[in-house]
């Protein structure tokens, strides 16, 4: 996944893993200020629950067997904040995935959970709901 994320994001993430994360984990990347649309109270609640991200989650390749090829996929893109997801969003589009945009920050599930639920439900065939 790291090859789909801009180097201006991955470079600092790797640096923080080396200097603050014992070389293998990336500390919380969004600083000490709430994301757009997130109240200070909600941010402090959320921040207390977030854990470091393993660096290898970005760097270790996965090998897919093809068994999941029949499962529908939808890329949900959050429009607020850094534009580091552009390459992965384009890859999803080229591969024919469903594509939904939500006007929210990276952690949109915290700020606008109803929008996430609506986006997910929109991907389910009506006969399954």
Write the layout of secondary structure elements.
Elements: H1 7-20, E1 25-26, H2 40-49, E2 53-54, H3 56-59, E3 74-78, H4 86-94, E4 98-102, H5 108-111, H6 113-122
Parallel strand pairs: 3-4
Antiparallel strand pairs: 1-2
Mean pLDDT across the residues is 85
Sheet with most strands: strand arrangement: 1-2
| Largest sheet: number of strands, sense, barrel closure | 2 strands, antiparallel
**Percentage of residues assigned to helices:** 25-40%
Number of beta-strand segments: 4
What percent of residues are in strands? 5-15%
How would you sum up this structure, described in words?
The chain has 129 residues and is of the alpha+beta class. The chain has one domain (2-62, 72-128). It is 40% helix and 11% strand. It is built from 6 helices and 4 strands. It is globular and about 50 Å long. The relative contact order is 0.17.
Key terms:
single chain; 129 residues; alpha+beta; two-stranded antiparallel sheet; two-stranded parallel ribbon; 4 strands; 11% strand
